[in-house]
């Protein structure tokens, strides 16, 4: 991003620099609009999943993983921007986007608490455990395209089964006592 000019952005968008400046005051504003829109859409996409009372916690986690994986594949370029260029935003805008990005993380806390009730006893574990799960999915953008032998749906199930199978067996109370 730092080496990209507003002219580079205009060329990539097949428009003129003056047209971009009509709508955006700077390349940072273009970046902000892209990241804000992506983070907003991402957060909203999880609401129906986490609020579905008919889904068992494990099924909810699988749907969450599948949704995130499919979005990371479909919006790979935006996902890379979120992961790599968030620091290019001014502090106030960075905070806005970061707040939006935390919504799906925090939304999955209650599901994780149901899968391993030990987590509810120490809320300081919620964010790290959620990030452990989400991080496993987020970094697949570097190598998983969904075009190979493994479909995104099957891969999301594999990740969830691996996480749940291991996570459900972690004695969090003993871990906390250390």
UniProtKB/TrEMBL annotation:
SUPFAM superfamilies: Homeodomain-like, Tetracyclin repressor-like, C-terminal domain. GO terms for molecular function: DNA binding. Residues 5-24 bind DNA. Transmembrane segments: none annotated. Coiled coil: none annotated. Pfam families: TetR_C_24, TetR_N. Residues 1-42 form the HTH tetR-type domain. Keywords: DNA-binding. InterPro entries: Homeodomain-like_sf, HTH_TetR, KstR2_TetR_C, Tet_transcr_reg_TetR-rel_C_sf. It comes from the Bacteria. This is TetR/AcrR family transcriptional regulator.
